[in-house]
Amino acid sequence: MPSAPASAVDPFRLPELAGHLLNRLRGERTRVHAITNAAAQNLTANLLLAAGGIPSLTVVSVEVQAFTSRSAALLVNLDTLDADRRAAIPQGIATARAPAKPWVLDPVFVDASPSRLKFARACLAGRPRVLRCDAGEFAALAGADATLETVQAFAKAHGTIVALTGMVDLITDGVRIIRVENGYSLMIRVTAMGCAGTALVAAFTALHGSALDAAAAALLVTRVAGEIAARDAKGPGTFQPAFLDALFNPNRPTLITHGRVS
């Protein structure tokens, strides 16, 4: 069951929180329903399973309400935005909102498609708990470049956590700011790595009262796993299975030792 609202965590204690949430995910087998893109479905499911959660992935509109209802959180990813997903996403969001269940929006490539951008803005009206995006996607949604000031203002205006991912991840609620500095370049050489990682953000928001801390903790876990996986990987082909292995194994001491947060 979700935790009661929690007080903000000092960024330097975030690795400890990340380990705690990972242990809870493994113990409670938190279920996330992911309306995600075709390229990301397999990795998203495997990432959640490796971390200890349970995925479901249907995009069929007549089923999405039932699957969202039985899940603790919802992920909405806008890549491969076909007719089935366009029909299912509003139903999933409405189902999640009815009991104030956390849901996370990943507006993939909204900077490339006007129709997708319009759809994403309609989704934003459903007040996602977390918006996970890159600088280009943010600029399209906000109509302004991604600076610290514009990201904070957007988070305040929309009542959401903005998790802006890049070389350094910036997570803010409009007031507090957390930066996650871990990661490895091979993570951008494997398709859907970021999309799949957003599912862990959704899972952690279901387990912790502060969505800001939950989002930052989830990004930290995936980035630390990426660094660990890169030690033995010979390239992108060996990196993905090594990443899933690394995600299966980390614990609180590992995250405390390797986490770089400010």
Give your account of this protein's structure.
By secondary structure, this protein is α/β, with parallel strands linked by helices. The chain has one domain: UDP-N-acetylmuramoyl-L-alanine:D-glutamate ligase (3-Layer(aba) Sandwich), CATH 3.40.1190. The protein has eleven helices and eight strands. The protein has an eight-stranded mixed sheet, sandwiched between helices. Helix 1 crosses helix 9 and helix 3 packs parallel to helix 4. The protein starts with 13 loop residues before the first helix and ends with a helix. 51% of the residues are buried.
List keywords for this structure.
UDP-N-acetylmuramoyl-L-alanine:D-glutamate ligase; alpha/beta; 11 helices; single chain; 262 residues; eight-stranded mixed sheet; disordered N terminus
Provide the fold topology.
Blueprint lengths: L13 H15 L2 E5 L5 H11 L2 E3 L4 H9 L3 E5 L5 H15 L5 E4 L7 H11 L5 E4 L1 H8 L5 H11 L2 E4 L4 E4 L4 E4 L12 H13 L5 H20 L5 H13 L3 H7 L4
Parallel strand pairs: 1-2, 1-3, 3-4, 4-5, 5-6
Antiparallel strand pairs: 6-7, 7-8
Helix pairs in contact: 1-9, 1-11, 2-8, 2-10, 3-4, 8-9, 9-10
